[in-house]
Amino acid sequence: MAPHRIDSAADFGRVALLVGGDSAEREVSLNGGRAVAAGLARQGIDVTTFDGAPALFAAIAAGTVDRVFNLMHGPGGEDGAIQGALQLMGVPVTGTGVLGSALTMDKLRSKWVWQRLGIDTAPFHVQGPGDIDADAIAAFDGVLFVKPAGLGSSIGVSRVTNTQELAPAVELARRYSDTVIIEQGITGGEYFAGVLDGVALPLIRIETPNAFYDYDAKYESDQTRYFCPCGLAPDDEARLQQASLAAYRALGGEGWGRVDFILDDDGRPWFLEANTVPGMTDHSLVPQAAAVLGIDFDDLVWRILETSL
């Protein structure tokens, strides 16, 4: 990794750590926020935590904020809304800007962009309001995944193995998004590529006893296994790192983030989604991958804060 661009904590000024909000990913954000706040404070950075945008905006109006470390997941924090507001206020913020945030938060439009650019993503059907289109679903084979189009952390996601499970899965996803994606399941290993300041981090492969890498497997289970190094040959890993970086940049991703993909038996990556504000809990993937490069948690949060420059 490149050397730090800022050597003195004082040069960051007064940092607002934005967490919480009111999305379904609130608890994940709060958990990660506690770790990030501690990591910043240990390095002498002047950091104040704000739960949700209204408290942050009040502090900005009072002139007590110089830059924002954004760790508010989901709608409001990861979809371009906070990025646009801070841009208008002239306050620097970590990570991806307005357009990239909006694109990556919307799984449907992410997939449309990837398709247009020839980046492989699992075949899918868009299910809007109304009855399920049985003819469209009949084109798929085997396992399906049903997802809300605009949420992360696997909230509202279901693995469907028969037609009886499909309607309840769509109903669950609709609690979180008017637009639902019904996606062909891809057989293969599940991999994650962290991105930090234009560099793809070492890949992580996961194994879980759960039916898939759901909310429990991500944040609560001690049975999920993480492999980093991931076990691939160096040339293959390098190829997939570059493919992941290209997939992230195609959506306007900047600064830091994560790209998730399935690697099939032919060595072909099928990209699932990109995350511009990944988790920073003790189960999270970006800190694990950074550690392989010798970047400990405190160094990582410093480098993420530098993406606000």
TrEMBL record:
What the entry lists under Pfam families is as follows: Dala_Dala_lig_C, Dala_Dala_lig_N
Binding site residues for Mg(2+) 1: 260, 273
Its needed co-factors are: Mn(2+); Mg(2+)
Q: What Gene Ontology terms for biological process does this UniProt record contain?
A: cell wall organization; peptidoglycan biosynthetic process; regulation of cell shape
- What are the GO MF terms of this UniProt record? ATP binding; D-alanine-D-alanine ligase activity; metal ion binding
Q: Where in the cell is it found?
A: Cytoplasm
Instruction: Quote the record's binding site residues for Mg(2+) 2.
Output: 273, 275
What is the protein's given name?
D-alanine--D-alanine ligase
UniProt pathway: Cell wall biogenesis; peptidoglycan biosynthesis
